[in-house]
Amino acid sequence: MAPRGQRAGLEARAHLVFVTKYRREVFSGEMLTRCEEIMRDVCESFGAELREFNGEGDHVHLLVHYPPKIALSKLVNSLKGVSSRYLRAEYTGRIIRIGTGSVFWSPSYFAGSCGGAPLSIVRDYIENQKRPA
């Protein structure tokens, strides 16, 4: 039996935005693709699903569906920490040249609940980011 207030199969949804340190224009199209791969893997390890991903030179947007038993802050910390480690290791020259130092992401993030907004509107917003080439 599902815990009180939860139905079987119920999932939470969040629109997340992570910004690079100092809002530096770090991302290329290739880096965004790699970042998406890393974040998909992290989500899967939490039993979550990355439904949409896109970004611009200095930030990324994610639409994540995750089990309500998962603390969103733990998922975010893992997404930022793992992606930072991999991206800094794989794109060292580019990141050093741009000057974010040993920290990749800004310490803050945006997390918006998608319970009230139609998911198609959030999905369209994420898809329409001006992704670098």
Q: Please, could you describe this protein's structure?
A:
The structure is a single chain. This protein has 4 helices and 4 strands. The longest helix has 19 residues, at 72-90. The chain is of the alpha+beta class and 133 residues long. Helix 1 packs across helix 2. It is globular, with a radius of gyration of 15 Å.
User: On the 0-100 scale, what is the average pLDDT?
Assistant: 89
Strands across the major sheet, in which order? Answer: 2-3-1-4
What quaternary form is this?
Answer: single chain
The tally of beta strands, per DSSP, is 4
- Broad structural category: alpha+beta
Shape: globular
H/I helix tally: 4
Strand-helix topology:
Layout (H helix, E strand, L loop, with lengths): L11 E9 L8 H17 L3 E8 L2 E8 L5 H19 L1 H7 L6 E9 L5 H9 L6
Helix pairs in contact: 1-2
Name the features.
single chain, 133 residues, alpha+beta, four-stranded antiparallel sheet, 4 helices, 4 strands, globular, disordered N terminus
Summarize the structure.
The protein contains 4 helices and 4 strands.
